[in-house]
Amino acid sequence: MSSAQGDKLFRRRRMNADYAIAFLITPSTFNAITFTPAVSAILLRRGQQRGWLGWFFARVNDLLDWMHRGYQRILGTVTRFQMANIPRI
Questions:
Q1: pTM above 0.70?
Q2: pLDDT per residue over 21-33, tens digit each?
Q3: Residues 6+ apart with CB under 8 A from 85
Q4: Is 74 helix (H, G, I), strand (E, B) or coil?
């Protein structure tokens, strides 16, 4: 086998590997862009779920609201005393 044939074979194998990786990534990307946000919107819609699933997501929403309020409180405190946190040079 000459050097040119070996190089051509290497490039062909590399290209086949690139196609295989692209083939595997494409469905995952399609899923991430379309299905995941749609399912999340359905599951996290407030007040629409019934039964144990509605109870569960109501608790999750309560937890997220609590974390959001705490984060806002921390940011408000930090920005109120902003000058004390910035060292002067």
A1: no
A2: 777 777 778 877 7
A3: 78
A4: helix
